[in-house]
Design a protein that fits this description.
2 domains, 21% strand
Length: 288
């Protein structure tokens, strides 16, 4: 059962922010993520920006309150928000957002974009080029004018349920998930990591056509991408080698490569990612 202090904190945040629907953010809320970013800015919180009200977040609020002569109740109410300063003045939806802006609402935007499949580097409350790029991709995905400016239409689209994988998937290899889809530190992991020994075979998660099988310089390393139709693409990254070629038709379970540690990787594993019309989605619910 949640602690009373956690409930109070969540209630206080909800009262002062445009909080997206629980169905859209089952693992965390943008307003809580923005609070965590704000606490990090004030050097009282070192935990992840995951949008989850927990003991560390509540303790950080209390630490901030003590430092500023406020009642240390762990509730991010109006007095605490004012003490946070200009950074916490605006909540998501209270103003139009564009590149160069900073604040609580920008952090909410970053977190919401990431959960809708468009991560944008560190979630830090700064609207830089990565945020603008992710926003434009999301706007195209949501059939909005891709102007890179977050206004009422974008805010409405971000309240919609998260995209999901519409097809059934098979596990590309049998392994426990080492790093899940979702927040990771102050960033966002757009897929899942499946650890394994170098050379372990990796199978296709569904039938389709290979649309990419080469080294990707952006960090994925040796990468295979398979188009399954309907806008669904699966990605197999950090491979040690390839077993398929671009243009090849493959079946579920066809070996696409072998586990490796190519690209930006700290050890041998498979980074498995699924995108639906370009939006990264959690593949786990689609596994049979």
């Amino acid at each position: 059962m949640p602690r009373l202090g956690h409930i109070k904190l969540a209630t206080a945040i909800a009262a002062g922010a445009l909080v997206l629907a629980p169905s859209a953010h089952a693992a965390g809320r943008p307003a809580v993520a923005a609070l965590q970013v704000t606490l990090r800015h004030h050097h009282v919180y070192r935990g992840p920006v995951d949008g989850i009200v927990g003991g560390a977040t509540t303790a950080a609020v209390m630490r901030f309150q003590r430092l500023h002569g406020l009642t240390p109740d762990g509730v991010a109410g109006p007095k605490t928000r004012r003490a946070f300063g200009r950074f916490a003045k605006h909540v998501l939806g209270s103003r139009i957002l564009a590149r160069g802006m900073t604040g609580w609402d920008v952090a909410e935007l970053q977190f919401a974009l990431a959960w809708h499949g468009f991560p944008n580097a560190a979630i830090d409350g700064g609207f830089g080029r990565h945020v603008k790029h992710a926003l434009i991709k999301f706007q195209r995905w949501a059939h909005l004018a891709p102007d890179g400016i977050a206004g009422p239409g974008t805010f409405r689209a971000l309240r919609a349920p998260l995209p999901r994988c519409p097809i059934a998937l098979a596990w590309p290899l049998r392994a426990a998930v080492g790093s899940p889809f979702g927040p990771r530190g102050i960033a966002f992991h757009p897929g899942i990591d499946l650890p394994g020994a170098t050379g372990t075979p990796v199978g296709a998660a569904a039938p389709g056509h290979v649309i990419f099988a080469a080294h990707d310089p952006s960090g994925y390393g040796n990468l295979v991408e398979v188009d399954h139709g309907g806008g669904v693409v699966s990605m197999y990254a950090h491979l040690s080698g390839f077993s398929v070629r671009t243009g090849q038709s493959i079946a579920t379970g066809t070996r696409v490569g072998r586990i490796g540690s190519s690209g930006e990787s700290t050890g041998p594993h498979l980074h498995f990612e699924v995108r639906v019309r370009g939006a990264a989605v959690d593949p786990v619910p689609a596994f049979g």
